[in-house]
Each structure stands twice: as structure tokens, then as C-alpha cells.
Amino acid sequence: MFRNQYDNDSSTWSPQGRIFQVEYASEAVKQGSAVVGLKSKENAVIVAVKRSPNELASYQKKIIRIDDHMGIAMAGLTSDARVLSNYLRTEAMRSKMVYGRPLPVGRAVSAIGDKAQTNTQEYGRRPYGVGLLVIGHDDTGPHLYEFNPSGIVSEYYAYSIGSRSQSARTNLERNFETFQDMSLKELIVQGLKSLRDTLQQGKQLDVLNTSIGFVGKDSKMTILDGQDTQEYLDLLDEGEAMDTE
User: Fold this and answer.
1) Which of 145, 72, 152 minimizes the C-alpha distance to 113?
2) What pLDDT digit, counting tens, does each position of 66-120 carry?
3) Residue 240 has what pLDDT?
4) Angle formed by the axes of helices 78-99 and 105-119, nearest 10°
5) At residue 2, does pLDDT exceed 50?
6) Are 38 and 158 in contact (CB under 8 A)?
7) In angstroms, what CA-CA distances link 19 with 5, 190, 225, 243?
8) Buried residues in 140-151 as b, exposed as e (16+ CB within 10 A)
9) Taking a C-beta distance cutoff of 8 angstroms, is the pair 123, 11 a contact?
10) Is 34 helix (H, G, I), strand (E, B) or coil?
11) Model pLDDT for residues 40-59, shown as the tens digit of each residue
12) CA-to-CA distance for 136 and 36, rounded, in angstroms?
């Protein structure tokens, strides 16, 4: 009903109590390639499908390291993710310089949530067209947070965002109770298994389009791309072969 009268900026409410600019930004997240995150008692993992604009271009980066104890994976507008990641890096550096300690993961995610919420309240701004999965490890253990363009942040045991992410969430919801006692390798394989469910028919995970990130009690934030992912793709294939026997 008269939708175009209420979607010209992000500071105008519709009569139904909706802010259409925020909803449009959320649609941009759904257009991005899928990202899956999950955590156990000691580790947090993110896995992502990378896209290439065309055959002559390289694959776009999907996982960004923020600090030794924290990283993010993105779905949506890459340039917006770059702005938010730079902001997080600045906050992490400030925490070390001022307080002499790593930035708590929950506080970091709240900071970008506040930053995004400002864009939904002030005239002339637009919401960020990107969703993030943030993993980290601090004094309270491993964490997985989801950030969306509305500025809302939520903590999860496992979650997925991006294109066809509902398929991955279905698998995660079915198995998340088993994640807590898994080793790091098992956790990564479970993430890849859920990520594979988001692929179009005929597509496969390979060393070119797969990106893996993890952080934990005994490991700093690590990102695996290219041939470094082959070990885990092989484990995924082995598990699939055993399931079919």
C-alpha cells in the first residue's frame, strides 16, 4: 500500500511499522554467496563460498582477519564489509593501546551494530548492504555472532547467511547439539557439509571457491584458501563416501 511513499530514505516508517530501506539492504545480503558459521566448546569456524565475477577475474575474498582472536565472513556488498572491517580493526587496536587487552568479541559486535543503527535513524544515510558472521575467542570462550543491516546482532551456536542459506540452516538445526564436543577438523567438515547444501545443482566445493576460517583456545585467527583447503575437502568426500556405503 503506497509503498513508494515510504521507501525513499531509511528514517521514514511505513503505516505498517516497516522501514523499507532496511528490508532492501537485507535483500542484498540474500544475494551474496553463502557463509556458514558454527562453534564448539573450544573453537569457532566460518566457511564460505567465493564467487568470481567472470572467468578472467580472481575469486572475491570472503573472510577477513580482524585481530589474532577474531575474524569475519561477509555476504552482500563487499565494499560495505571493507568499511566495517576497517572500523573493527581500529577498535581492536584502540583496545590494545588503551586497555592493554584484546577487544572482547561481544563488545566489538555491539560497536558495529550501533554504527549500523545510526544509518537507519539519520536522514540522508543508507543502511549497510552486507551481513556478517563474526567469530572470536576471548576470556569467556568461543563466540559466533550474526550482524545484519538493521543493526541487530545475535549470538548463535551455528548459523548461515547469504544465497540459499536456509538449506544450510536446516542441516545446522538438525545437528548443532553434536557440535559442542567436536574437534576442530570435525567442526570444519560439518561446516563444509552444510555449505555444500547451498550450492546450485551441478556445482561443487573445490580449492578455488572454498574459504575456511577458524579461531580457538589454542589457535589464533587463521584463514585457509586455495590448496590449504584440500585436506578438509578430502575429509568431506571421505565422510560422504562412508555415508553412502
Assistant:
1) 152
2) 999 999 999 999 999 999 999 999 999 999 999 999 999 999 999 999 999 998 8
3) 60
4) 130
5) no
6) yes
7) 11, 36, 38, 46
8) ebbbbbbbbbbb
9) yes
10) coil
11) 999 999 999 998 877 778 88
12) 15
154 within 8 A of 167, measured Cβ to Cβ: no
Block residue for cell numbers 572500523: 87
According to DSSP, the β-strands at 130-138 and 141-147 are: antiparallel
Cβ(174)–Cβ(220) below 8 Å: no
Q: How far apart are CA 176 and CA 172, in angstroms?
A: 5
The Cα-based distances of 193 to 38, 48, 236, 243 in angstroms read 12, 11, 7, 12
The H or E element containing residue 37 is: strand 35-39
Q: 27 vs 43, 52, 159, CA distance in Å?
A: 30, 20, 17
E-assigned strand segments in 43-147 = 43-49, 63-67, 70-76, 130-138, 141-147
Phi-psi region of 58 (alpha: psi -120 to 50; beta: other; left: phi over 0): beta
- Report the alpha-carbon angle 103-40-133, nearest 5: 50
Angle between helices 165-175 and 184-196 (to 10 degrees): 140
Using the predicted structure, report yes or no on whether residue 36 has a pLDDT greater than 70: yes
Tell which residue, 142, 150, 149, has the closest CA to residue 37: 142
Q: Can you read off the three cell numbers belonging to residue 62?
A: 570472503
